[in-house]
Each structure stands twice: as C-alpha cells, then as structure tokens.
Amino acid sequence: MSDKQRDDKPTGAVNEGRRRFLAGSAAVGAASMAGAAGVAGVGALTRSQPAQAASHGGAADIHVPPGELDEYYGFWSGGHSGEVRVYGVPSMREIMRIPVFNHCSASGWGMTNESKRIMGDSHRFTNGDAHHPHVSYTDGSHDGRYLFINDKANTRVARIRLDVFKTDAMVTVPNVQAIHGLRLQKAPRTGYVFANGEYMIPQPNDGRDINDPSKYYTLWNAIDADTMEVKWQVMVDGNLDNMDADYNGKYCAATCYNSEGAVDLAGKMRADRDWVVVFNIENIEAAVASGDFMTIGDSEVPVVDGRKSSDLNVTRYVPVPKNPHGLNTSTDGKYFIAAGKLSPTVSMIEIARLDDLFAGNLADERDVIAAEPELGLGPLHTTYDGRGNAYTTLFIDSQVVKWNMEDAVRHYNGEDVNYIRQKIDVHYQPGHNHATLAESKDADGKYLFSLNKFSKDRYLPVGPLHPENDQMIDISGDEMVLLHDTPTFAEPHDAVIIRRDQIQTKQIWERDDPYFADTVAMAREDGITLETDNEIIRDGNKVRVYMTTVAPNFGITEIPVKQGDEVTVTITNLDRVEDLTHGFCVVDHGVSMEISPQQTASITFTADKPGVFWYYCNWFCHALHMEMVGRLLVEPA
C-alpha cells in the first residue's frame, strides 16, 4: 500500500495529524539542505516502496528458505528489558534472547547460583537498560569471542561468551552513574572496554555537596576485557554521551551534551557549542604508571584528572555544535564523526591530526575538524558502507541520509560539490542505525538497519504501548531501497551485525567449562561425582541435592525436606544429543532453570511451606516429557 493510499484511508485524527507533522518536518529538512551551497535539495528525496525492492538487484532478495541459514548474526540490545536479542540477517528471524541485566524464568538467569555469582551484588536488581552491544576485535576485525553491553539503569557492563551465548562476567562501575556510551579497543585486540559515565555526580557521591553542582563530575572508564575489572578512570567536564575508538589503539573520543554543567533542561541547551572529548590512551596509561592519579571514596581504581583545567596531557576538548549525540569511527579509520542532534550538521574529526593536537602544534582545537556537512534536522548516528559513504539518521526529519565523506571534505574546503547522495524516509524518528560489519574495517555495504523509536501505524494495533520499528534497507547499490519492517519491543536502541563465520559456537557443553566450575568445586567438597552420583546431603537446615538427568528421567524423584530448609538442587544433564535441554521447575516456589547437554546448573530456594510440591522438566525433551517429574516432600516444622 502506498503512502498516498494510506493517507486516503480514514485513519483518524491522531494519525492524520502525525502525517501532517512528518510532511512538514521533511519539508523543513529539505529547505535546510537547499540552503547549503552545493547540496541537493528536494530532488535528493527518493521513494522507498517495498515494491521497488522486487526489481532491485544486489542484496534485495532477503528470503531465507526453510532449513537454510542466514548470512549474518545480528545482535540487538533489548533496551529496558535488559537482554540481548539475536536475529538472523537478512531473514530477521529472532533466534535467541540472551538474558543479561534482567531475570529470565526460562533459563533461570538471575535465579541460578551460577548467574548470581556472575551478577554479583547487582543480581538484586531485576531491571536493566541495555544500550550498546559490541563484538570483540583482533586487528580491527570482529573475532567472535565476546559481546559486551552496558546497563544504563544500574551502571553495569557485561560480557557475553559467543561460543555458548551466555553472559559470563559483569562489573558495576564505581564512582559514576549510568553507563551509556560503550565501545571496544579495536587494535591490536580488545584489551579494553571503554565506557562513558553519563550523569555528573558529586565526587565522592556520599551525601556531601548534593546541592553544589559545581562539584559534580563524571568519569570515562576503561575495563579490562579479559578480567572485567575496572583498570582506570578519567575525570572529565560535562555529561558524556556516545563514544568510539580508533583503529590504531591510540585514541578514543566521546561526545558531551552538557558542557554547561547544568542540572536542568534549559541550562543544558544554553551553549551554541558543546564538545567532543578526545582521550589519549597511551598518555593515560603513562599517568597511571607514574602515580599521577587519585582515588575516590572507597574505590581503589586510579582516577586521572582529564578536566579542561588539568595540566596532564590526557584529554582535549574539541568544540562542536550543539548537544552532540552519536559518535562513530569511519571504517576507513580516518574520522571520528559526531552527530549534532540540535544542529543539522555532523562534525568530522580527522584522527591523523590528533597527534599534532596533543603535541600542541595546532592553533585551535577545531583545527582537527576536516568537515562539518549539513545533513538535515536531528542527526543522531552514523554508519558506513565501506565504499566511502556514510549514512546518518535524522530524527526530526524521519529520514536516513546517504552522503560521501570525501566530497564533504572537499565542500568544506570550498569546492562546489554535492556530498549528499540520497535521503530515504523511515518510519518514524530513527535513533541508531547500523550496516552490516560497519563497526569493523570489513564493512561490506549490503544491509542497513534503521532503529526507529516509533511505529505508529505500521503494525496491527496492540493498545497504547506500541512496538518500535526496525527497518532493513538495501545499500548495496547506488540507491537505498527499503526491504522490510520488523517490530521490536522496549527500545532495542542499538545493534551490531557480523558474518556467521566469525562466530564458532559449541553445541554441547564441555565438562570442564569455567561457567559452572564453582558448582563443580562445591560438589567435590561434598565428595560428589556429578556425572554419576544422585545423592542428598543434609547439613543442619541446609539440604544439597545432587542429581543427574537423562531423558526422560530425573536421577532423584523424591526430595524429603523440612519446612524452612534451604535447598540447593544441582543437576547435571548427561545427554549428549544436540538441542536436548532439560529444565527444573518446582511448582509454587518460583524455581526454574535450564540445563543444556553436559551442563551443570544449580539453584537455591527455601522450602517455606509444608506439603507435596511436584517438580518437572519444563523444557520439552522426550515423548515422555510430561512424565519427567519428581516430588518435593516438605514436612511441617
């Protein structure tokens, strides 16, 4: 159905008003672009009908037949759900949900002893706000070992093992509040995970200086990717937003949207320019090594002073307009590109000039700006096709704009050149966008995803809370073509897409896997051989149950306990058949977990009321799955 046909339908006052707003904002964006010398105006707008894809070559055929595999893994953040979602690309079939900062009754994440150890004290939080997933690197290419993601809600960073698609480490970052922007060291390998603390707080935040915002600061954080320990932090001025790292392992850069240091909305928009903070990693490491750092409160993490007033040569503040948001490194390694958000421009920082900036060889910080092209209203994020083109989301215009980076530089230097290649309408208000392999030097320019904050009339109505709308766009040819809409829930926020051959997964757990090593050690102390023993051990009011499972049997079918006992059930799945997962669920006790082939998993609960309570396998495993049960027999206290 065309937009004209849709508009002719009696869709109601709300939708009609929405369409008039979109039409008006698009016109404003076009007029804004027409005012820039050498930039295409309305003629740059092109249709984006699915019918156009039917006759389009290149990557346009997105059908993946039954039984065949997708070309890419797509990792979407789960937003307010706190999870990571795994899609096949280009089919957009949802393959898996990986619980991270949330609790999951299907897998037992947040309930099992193994997950509680990984989450640490923060397992008491049942919510998360997962924003930026990124896959680890070797020499600028994704190596498929880990995926890292941040939790803005509770100031955490987590690591997911991509051989088993399980979260295996998590850290709560001290001295900051709300981890937002997160990126990885790209070269020579991912040794660091870099994370922005967004909100400024008193340092230390222990009740003093609550009413004195002049003493509020935030920190930029480096986490050891191997140990998941916070290695050092850098104190900065302003709120840190998004960030990225270069392809040499030397520099990182982060946008700041509150250079004013304000605590109210109006105050955060006073300045015509905010800044991009550039971090010199080698100089920060040298400062830590030489003892040029402080510590804050009870934390022992070294904190280096990177504020504008500091005489340490660890940061530079590059003025850019206005309340910038996204910052993305071009895949050719040349530029940090910061999106203006409240300015119609993006700022291209030339990474090759940063050595001179830190050496004091430039007259002004803005001498590192290679270009500042005007793109449209509300630029937020930029991705790349590996052919010299950048793609930036325009939130207010509800568009993605394709533009050529080197032509933008030529235009900035005075040449009469058109750097905008095309604009395509998206539905509606895009935030992040991501193209295939576009977080690495291997960007292949096949598909782009626009992650749109609103869906409005794109799907069947489901009440006041609408899904969001991710749209797949073919960028393999000269013209962008809309291919597919995908509804998503609870603000997925960001994504990363890599080739399927870049990940090697296990189909069956190895018995010496560190994921459940602590549980194995506990069994060893009890004299238990997990692969053979089915025993119950009583230690005062603590009961430890060790059992095996082989479809369709639990190794123990009666667990006698007393009311008030703390019961720990440890199960080892002896099946070796791929995809033969068992579950353990105790009725009326809030107990549920999965145990995949050759995995050991454990869960602890209190038998708080007398009676008979059945436990059963809640992952379908066998023709006699319904009969795979046992009884928890709770004697009155």
UniProtKB/TrEMBL annotation:
Keywords: Calcium, Copper, Membrane, Metal-binding, Oxidoreductase, Periplasm, Signal, Transmembrane, Transmembrane helix
Enzyme class: oxidoreductase
Sequence positions that bind Cu cation Z4: 493
Annotated cofactor note: Binds 2 calcium ions per subunit.
UniProt GO MF annotations: calcium ion binding; copper ion binding; cytochrome-c oxidase activity; nitrous-oxide reductase activity
Region described as COX2-like: spans on this chain: 541-637
Parts of the chain that traverse the membrane: 21-45
SUPFAM superfamilies per the UniProt record, alphabetical: Cupredoxins, Nitrous oxide reductase, N-terminal domain
InterPro entries assigned to the protein according to its UniProt record, in alphabetical order: CcO_II-like_C, Cupredoxin, EfeO_Cupredoxin, N2O_reductase_N, N2OR_C, NO_Rdtase, Nos_propeller, NOS_propeller_2
Binding-site residues, Cu cation A1: 582, 617, 621, 628
Subcellular compartments: Periplasm
Subcellular location, principal: periplasm
Reactions catalysed according to its record: N2 + 2 Fe(III)-[cytochrome c] + H2O = nitrous oxide + 2 Fe(II)-[cytochrome c] + 2 H(+)
One family name in Pfam for this protein: nos_propeller_2
Binding, Cu cation Z2: 131, 180
EC number: 1.7.2.4
Post-translational modification: Predicted to be exported by the Tat system. The position of the signal peptide cleavage has not been experimentally proven.
Name the record gives this protein: Nitrous-oxide reductase
Encoding gene, per UniProt annotation: nosZ
